[in-house]
Amino acid sequence: MTTPRPDWLPSASQGPLDDKLGIQIVDFDPDRLVATMPVAGNEQPFGLLHGGATCALAESIGSWAAILHAGPGGDVVGIELNASYLRAARSGVVTAVCTPVRRGRTLATYLIQVSDEAGRPTASARLTCLIRPARTPRQP
């Protein structure tokens, strides 16, 4: 890991779905987040990596990039995900690399490139997130 998890992020777990899919962020660099996911356990009935698992990987890493951009106390919500499948992954681990396209005050867009263990591209995705300011407690 080049860039460690920021101390202000909640818990060491990335979330229940990430845990089920085996998604692990291995570099928290806000300009180049990197995550991995095993193919085993995430296949569709024909033995290929499931497209839904690939989308979950893309949305997860893009959302983490957006929350790093939003900062402590900020909140993000994915509002659009677009994915193209380029090559089937049948085994091993896929790696997703997330880079910012634009990080604005209220919207952030990220490009997520997924590749197999041989470095061949398996999918490309784009995620746009709404950035919401930190919530303040409501006054009575």
Number of helices: 2
Series of H and E elements: HEEHEEEE
CATH architecture descriptor name: Roll
- What global shape is seen? globular
Number of DSSP E strands: 6
Report how far apart the termini are.
Answer: 45 Å
Calculate the mean pLDDT score and round it: 92
The tally of domains stands at 1
Structural class: alpha+beta
The CATH topology is given as Thiol Ester Dehydrase, Chain A
List keywords for this structure.
single chain, 140 residues, alpha+beta, Thiol Ester Dehydrase, Chain A, six-stranded antiparallel sheet, 2 helices, 38% strand, globular
Could you please describe the fold and organization of this structure?
By secondary structure, the chain is α+β, with helices and mostly antiparallel strands. It has one domain: Roll (Thiol Ester Dehydrase, Chain A), CATH 3.10.129.10. Helices cover 19% and strands 38% of the residues. The protein has helices spanning 16-21, 51-70, and strands at residues 24-27, 33-38, 75-85, 93-103, 107-115, 121-132. It has a six-stranded antiparallel sheet. A hairpin with a 5-residue loop joins strand 5 (107-115) and strand 6 (121-132). The chain is globular, with a radius of gyration of 15 Å. It starts with 15 loop residues before the first helix and ends in an 8-residue tail after the last strand.
